[in-house]
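This entry is listed as follows:

___
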Amino acid sequence: MATDFTGISIFIAVAEAGSFRLASERLGVTRSAVSQSIRRIEDRLGVALIQRTTRSLILTEAGRKLYDRVAPAMSDVNQAIEDAGGEARPSGTLRLAVSSIAERFLDGSLFTEFVCACPDVTLDVTITDETIDIVSEGFDAGVRLGEVLEQDMVALPVSGEQRQIAVASPGYLKLNPAPTHPRDLVGHRCIGWRPSRDVAPYRWEFTEQGRDFAVAVQPAVTTNEMRVMVNTALCGGGITCGMEELFQPYIVSGELVAVLQDYCPPFAGFYLFYPSRRNVPPKLRAFLDHVRRWRQTALR
């Protein structure tokens, strides 16, 4: 029985995307073509590979076993084909999911230098602070703080240690005495942040004598956009909390003042992470090499 390599590739795409629609978009084919291909494989094998409902899609036990066996093998086949033709030129779309607070990574220079060096690669950068599965969402890699990375990911540091600090404008502090302990924040007007509208405002985290604790402030203003936080603080709107890199230019200029610094120790910084796999696609491999060179200068 001849092997339907195209059908297997489509099955792998559906399994990884968790959706016929997403798989069809990534493969550049119609949804009906994806559905028909899966049906042909199931008919030939005589078993259901995918359990479909109107709202979800999951692999059956047979589907999971097949995926676990064929996905690594197909990766090896694709790599062998690329190797047979010499070193593959990086090409295609590289999809990244990056935290909005990774200031240095997002300053533009890294991306500009990369697309100039690899003109056949298109960067698609999504800014998100939600906890997502980059594999099921179709991303090649992501950037997050090291403390929230999954254990099965390969991680490359892209920043030094970070600090989260609280800041306010001199004008606000002139009218409202600066807090001397994080618990004093409950008596201040605060500017909060949350990654999306269905998530509670972020609890401000501090450390005292080696013990971590959080303060549930009641923000007068809450936003999912860091720049709104900064602008509101600059206008005297209250105390806000975020990454030191974000506030540093305004602290240097005197437009913002850091408070409670004794309770804000450094912690592990940002990492570029991607799924552990034997064969990294040329476009991602090129980006990883570029990031390694970039950080030698950026982290000095």
